[in-house]
Amino acid sequence: MALEKSKYYEIIDEIKALIVNGALKTGEKMPPERELAERFGVSRVPVREALKILEYMGVLENVPGEGLYIRNIDIPELIKKLGFAYTATSRTILDLFELRITLESAACYYAALRRTEEDIDVIWNCLARMRTLLRSDGNSAGELLELRALSNEFHTCVVNAAHNSVWSSVYQYLFELLDISKQYTINSNIGSYDTLLAHEAIFNKIVQKDSEGAKSDMNGHLAFARHKLEQKLMEEEAEKDGAEKG
User: Fold this and answer.
1) What share of residues in the chain are helix, strand, coil (percent, to 5)?
2) 85 Cβ partners below 8 Å, 6+ apart?
3) What are the DSSP calls for 16-45, one per residue?
4) 115 and 144: one domain?
C-alpha cells in the first residue's frame, strides 16, 4: 500500500495536465473514479485520495448528489501550489511551522490587547461548535474534517483579533503553504479534547487581556503540534524507506 500511495503525486500531475491543456474544463464534471483508475492504470484507492486532495485545495468542488466538478481556478496559481506540494521536504514543512509558531504567538499577544467584543463572540462561537462536535462522539471522516476546519478557523480568528491587516495576510499565506505541504499527513489530535482545552485556555487569556499568558499558551500549543507533526513525518519517511527497500 505504501508504494501505491506514491501514485497520488502522479495522478495529481496527470489531472493537472488535463486541466492546463484544456482536456478538462472549468465547470465540467470529473470522470468517475473507475474510469480514472483505468486511464492511469491504478486501483481506485490512490485516485480517490488524489481527488480528495484536489477538492481540499479548491481545484475540485463536490456537488451533493452529482459528483466532483472543476472549479473556476487560476492556472498559474494551481501550478504554483501543486509544485510546492511536491517540492516541500520534511525540513521545509517543519521550518514553516516554526515560523508559524513565532508569528502566531506574537499575534496572540496583540489579540489579547486589542480584541473587541465582536472578536470574543466569533472565537467563542467557533469553540462552541468544536465542543458540540466532540460531544457527539463521532469519528467519521466528515466530522474530523469539520473539526480540522474549525481548528483552523480558531487560529485565523485569533490572528485577525490582533487587528493588523499585514499580519493577517502574511499568516494566511503561510498557513496555505503549510496546509498544502501537509496534505499527506494526518493530525491525530485534531479531534481530541486536548486540542479543545488548549484552545479554550488561549481564549480565556485573550478574554482576560493577559497578553503574556496568551502568547505563552499559544507558543506551547503550537510547539506541541509541531512535535507531533515531526514524529508523523519521521514515521512516514521510515515507512517509505522500508517500502522501497522491500
Assistant:
1) 75, 5, 20
2) 12, 180, 181, 183
3) HHHHHTTSS-TTPBPPPHHHHHHHHTS-HH
4) yes
Which pLDDT tens digit goes with each residue over 68-95?
998 876 666 666 666 655 566 777 778 8
CB 40 within 8 A of CB 11: yes
What pTM, to 2 d.p., does this model score? 0.66
Q: Say which DSSP state 191 is in.
A: T
Nearest partner of 103 among 227, 218, 246, judged by Cα: 218
Instruction: Output the domain CATH number for residue 18.
Output: 1.10.10.10
Strand partners, 34: none
**Measured between alpha carbons, how far is 53 from 50 in angstroms, rounded to an integer?**
5
Q: How many domains does the chain fold into?
A: 2
Q: Check whether residue 121 and residue 197 sit in a common domain.
A: yes
Q: Could you count the other beta carbons within 10 Å of the beta carbon of residue 15? A: 24
Domain boundary among 54, 80, 106: 80
Name which of 44, 49, 54, 67 is nearest 17 in CA terms.
Answer: 54
